[in-house]
Design brief:
Elements lengths: L12 H24 L3 E3 H4 L7 E3 L2 E3 L2 E3 L5 H43 L4 H6 L11 H9 L3 H29 L4 H27 L5 H21 L1 H15 L3 H11 L1
Antiparallel strand pairs: 1-4, 2-3
Helix pairs in contact: 1-3, 3-5, 3-6, 6-7, 7-8, 7-9
């Protein structure tokens, strides 16, 4: 039983709980994706394969992806569910909140990495592998501190992608009605993530670095191919989530009472 909400201020207790859980999922996974995104991994390496060397715009690229893409699909699903049950208002609220918390996290990290390290902490961690010297403060700063371009690019891309997802989702829903969940969920994700992928690379590496537009577009193609594939593969999971949520909300007596009042 999908019950659209025109306002987040008037909903049953179970629907409020659902919104809180979905918000927690989006915020947690978005923050984690930003934190682990500094690591680039080899997609081919997972399967013990050599680089794919895919020809893209005159360049040959491997499937080298940021570690953040591993959990970013969870944000896709949660956003689509928020779209379905809480509308654009719900997506806007959680998007603005998440962006603010990501900015806060980067501020805290900047302060933490600027603090002078204790000498005993440096000493007890001074020995690396095979007796080599190891600067743990340098490693800490290197892992946690990202460039300004990546921070700005991530925040702008996240907000643009999330808001675009909401508008495309509801435009498709106005055309298809309550049917074809796969079309509005997958369609909105594919459009928003195309923009998200290009925006973050354009800002971080074209405006703040020395990449060419060709470099940005080439790497964008590889990243988007992954996101496109995952969005399609996760469609059955989205249907499962809808079925479980509809069953959960069916017992919300407050929601039923509000529905009766709105009919009157």
């Amino acid at each position: 039983m999908t019950v659209p909400a025109s306002s987040l201020h008037h909903m049953g207790s179970k629907k409020r709980q659902l919104f809180m859980v979905l918000c927690g999922i989006v915020v947690t996974n978005a923050l984690l994706a930003e934190m682990i995104g500094v690591k680039i991994f080899s997609g081919e390496g997972i399967f013990g394969l050599p680089g794919a060397q895919v020809p893209v715009l005159g360049a040959k690229l491997d499937f080298n992806l940021t570690a953040g893409v591993i959990i970013w699909p969870v944000v896709f699903i949660a956003t689509d569910i928020i779209n379905e049950y809480f509308g654009k208002e719900g997506v806007k609220k959680i998007s603005y909140l998440t962006a603010a918390l990501i900015a806060y996290a980067f501020l805290v990290i900047t302060i933490a990495t600027a603090l002078p390290p204790a000498q005993f902490w440096l000493d007890v961690n001074a020995e690396g592998f095979n007796g080599s010297s190891f600067d743990i403060n340098f490693a800490f700063n290197k892992v946690f501190r990202q460039g300004l371009g990546i921070i700005v690019g991530s925040l702008v891309a996240f907000l643009v992608g999330q808001l675009l997802d909401a508008y495309v989702f509801h435009w498709l829903k106005s055309v298809t009605g309550s049917k074809m969940i796969w079309l509005r969920a997958t369609g909105s994700t594919l459009v928003s993530q195309l923009v998200d992928t290009v925006v973050v690379l354009f800002i971080a590496f074209y405006l703040f670095d020395n990449w060419t537009l060709k470099d940005v577009l080439s790497v964008s193609v590889i990243n988007y191919l992954y996101k496109f594939t995952i969005a399609v593969l996760l469609t059955p999971l989205l249907y499962l989530a809808h079925a479980l949520i509809d069953r959960y909300l069916a017992g919300d007596t407050e929601l039923k009472h509000e529905a009766l009042l709105s009919e009157d």
